[in-house]
Amino acid sequence: MTVVRFAPSPTGLLHIGNARTALLNWLFAKGRGGRFVLRLDDTDQARSREEYAEQIIEDLAWLGIEPDLVVRQSERLDRYDEAARRLRGDGRLYGCYETPDELERRRKLRLAQGLPPVYDRSGLSLGPEERERLAEEGRRPHWRFLLRERRVEWDDLCRGPQHVETTALSDPVLVREDGTYLYTLPSVVDDIDLGITHVIRGEDHVTNTGVQIELFEALGSVPPGFAHHNLLIAGSGEALSKRTGALSLKSLREAGYEPAAVASLAVLLGSAEAVEARPDLASLARELDLMRLSRAPARFDEAELEGLNRSLIREMDYKTAKARLASVGADLGERFWLAVRGNLDRVRDAIIWRDVIEGPVEPPPPDREFLDVAARELPPEPWDDGTWSSWTGALKAQTGRKGKDLFMPLRLALTGREHGPELRAFLPLLGRERVEARLRKR
User: Fold this and answer.
1) What does the UniProt entry say about where the protein is found (predicted)?
2) pTM of the predicted protein model
């Protein structure tokens, strides 16, 4: 079975770029009858917050993503300890005592010598007496993973054949001086324990993959498949970040965007597919092809999101809109929704047209003689979508007016606005009594 994971750190709000990764994983798994695991990478106790963890779950649910399993790394520390002991026992995890300043000086020296700025593995040559002396000085070791210095290859589901020369990399630190874990070891241990079959993530992790494949193998496991998708960037060209809160899913939701519009843009932007609104995740899943994603970063344009949002609202049925209309006090029934949806940027903008119906509206401009005639010619109720045509036809015949000269004074008198829903559908919502009062208003 296909099993994927989305692994955010609860240190800030998810943004549209995070949504891209989550959705690609979800669509890939569900399109294959698989499982989606939400893994909260919360081992950074200084920055992780429970409110962010709860917000992540809420944001995913808003997009339509319900995890099959939620895992917290903070509850799995014993498993990471066990893996670290195994690696130490196998000689693949070794202690190092250099301070950050010492490491920086060595890095600059190697650069000056024309050598790659990688760690020189001094920690490997330390004998027991030296380690004891360093410990007496109050130094505590950080622990590095001994790379095999080889060409690591994999067939990337987004990028095709890939490789990383681990010879050109420093042995990565897996455990800090205080005994806490960096990202790499917990991530690999979790992927093994959870049976993750595919790791789908941003292209900024490509180099990490060479290290992680070696770590999978060192722990006696077959690595999963990997896919590294292109990243979304802000319209300004800047990288997106949870820390800044820019383009967060929470802010997009509060701004009134449809989750399907956000999902459509997050998935289709920077792909070979047309960026058009898809009504649900099932529609996106049928079109997902990781190999059709571009290799270049994709620039997020909020104007494009606006267009997708309007497109979805124009096709939205009343059943879908009803609860949200009710939440803002604008549920005036299906006829109202069908009349106004073509003029909305957000569902909540229906309030504008509720207020137009319930009034009051601004007095119409001076055109009293014509409006008086219009009031006298009002047909009796009941009214339907044909009433507007028959009424204006009679006015045209009686006054000789046509086009804008006929319709604009009526629109201004009835709605107080130059633009809006088609009056053939809007007129019955106003009703004869209200229409007559507005036409005769001085």
Assistant:
1) Cytoplasm
2) 0.90
Residue 56's identity, in one-letter code, is: I
DSSP codes of every residue in 100-146: HHHHHHHHHHHHHTT-------GGGG--HHHHHHHHHTT---EEEE-
Residue type, position 72, single letter: R
* Long-range Cβ contacts of 47-53 (<8 Å, 24+ apart): 47/9, 47/11, 48/9, 48/10, 48/11, 48/74, 49/10, 49/11, 50/10, 52/10, 52/11, 52/12, 52/13, 53/10
Backbone dihedral angles phi then psi of residue 439, each to the nearest 5 degrees: -70, -35
Reference 239, options 247, 229, 249; nearest CA is 247
Binding-site residues, please?
242
**Both structure tokens of 275:** 């960026």
Strand order in the sheet with 173-175: 93-96, 142-145, 173-175
Cα 80–chain centre separation: 30
CA dihedral 388, 392, 395, 397 (to 10 degrees): -130
**Residues composing the chain:** 442
Those residues with Cβ within 8 angstroms of residue 17's Cβ, 6 or more apart along the chain or in another chain: 202, 231, 232, 233, 240, 247, 300
- CA triple 205-175-85, angle to 5 deg: 115
- Contact criterion met (CB below 8 Å) for 270 and 232: yes
Amino acid symbol at 410: L
* DSSP string for residues in 183-241: SHHHHHHHHHHTT--EEEEEGGGHHHHHHHHHHHHHTT----EEEEEPPEE-TTSPBP-
**By three-state DSSP, how is residue 373 classified?**
helix
pLDDT along the chain (442 residues), means of 10: 97 94 97 97 90 97 98 97 98 95 91 89 92 91 96 97 95 96 97 98 95 98 98 81 75 95 95 92 92 92 94 97 96 98 97 95 81 94 96 94 94 94 96 94 72
- Domains located in the chain, CATH noted: 1-71+182-315 (3.40.50.620), 79-175 (3.90.800.10), 318-358 (no CATH), 368-440 (1.10.10.350)
Tokens at residue 355, please?
């207020």
Give residue for tokens 């917000």.
55
Report the alpha-carbon angle 408-409-413, nearest 5. 115
Per the annotation, binding residues for ATP are 242
Chain-centroid distance of CA 421 in Å reads 32
Q: Say if CB 144 and CB 84 are below 8 A apart.
A: no
- Retrieve residue 435's tokens: 């229409």
